[in-house]
Amino acid sequence: MISLQDIELAQKKWGENVVQIGSLKNDLKASEKATDKMLNDLYAFDLGHVLFKPTKATKIQFRLNFEGAKSYFIGENSNYDEDNGFAFQPWIQVEFENASVIINEKSALAMGNYFFTDPKGAKVKVEYTFSYIRDSKGSLKINLHHSSFPFNDEAYFN
């Protein structure tokens, strides 16, 4: 059974990985290796389909493979030319704030806001929905990642 503690630990690891990747932005090989490790450890690409809708993607909104997810975090992929490397902001902290969590026997869903802090202390609020499943070794992995900026009605109606 998946617990709330399992989800919170997976979220903590996710944030730490994004920060680590960003800290390596001047070393492409090291950042690529860290991104590969993050995607292998925290995402369920090895188990089947992963639905990945990153925050800052407009041309190719949905990344349904490892290559597309990797490009989102570190860029440098001509198949996804809009990607600048989200992790390369860089961010110094990522905090999750779960609005709600649904835990089932073999899966869990978490939805809420996460906050990305840049080196100057500015925070960016992003909405997320993650779905988690366990692999055969018992590790919790993401099989759905959807994130977006909060709706701005002023921008929409003006």
Question: What is the overall silhouette?
Answer: globular
What is the count of DSSP helices, taking H or I runs of 4+ residues? 4
Write the CATH architecture name: Roll
Radius of gyration: 15 Å
In the CATH scheme, what's the topology name? Nuclear Transport Factor 2, Chain: A
| CATH level 1 class label | Alpha Beta
Sheet with the most strands? 5 strands, mixed
Order of SSEs: HHEHEEEEH
In order across it, which strands form the biggest sheet?
Answer: 1-5-4-3-2
Strand content: 25-35%
Helix content: 25-40%
Question: What are the key terms here?
Answer:
158 residues, alpha+beta, Nuclear Transport Factor 2, Chain: A, five-stranded mixed beta sheet, 4 helices, 31% helix, globular
Model description:
The structure is a single chain. The protein has helices at 4-23, 28-42, 66-74, 153-157, and strands at 51-53, 93-103, 107-117, 123-134, 140-148. The chain has a single domain (4-157), classed as Nuclear Transport Factor 2, Chain: A. It is of the alpha+beta class and 158 residues long. It contains 4 helices and 5 strands, in the order H-H-E-H-E-E-E-E-H. The model has no long low-confidence stretch (mean pLDDT 95). Helices cover 31% and strands 29% of the residues. The chain has a 5-stranded mixed sheet, with helices on one face. The longest helix has 20 residues, at 4-23.
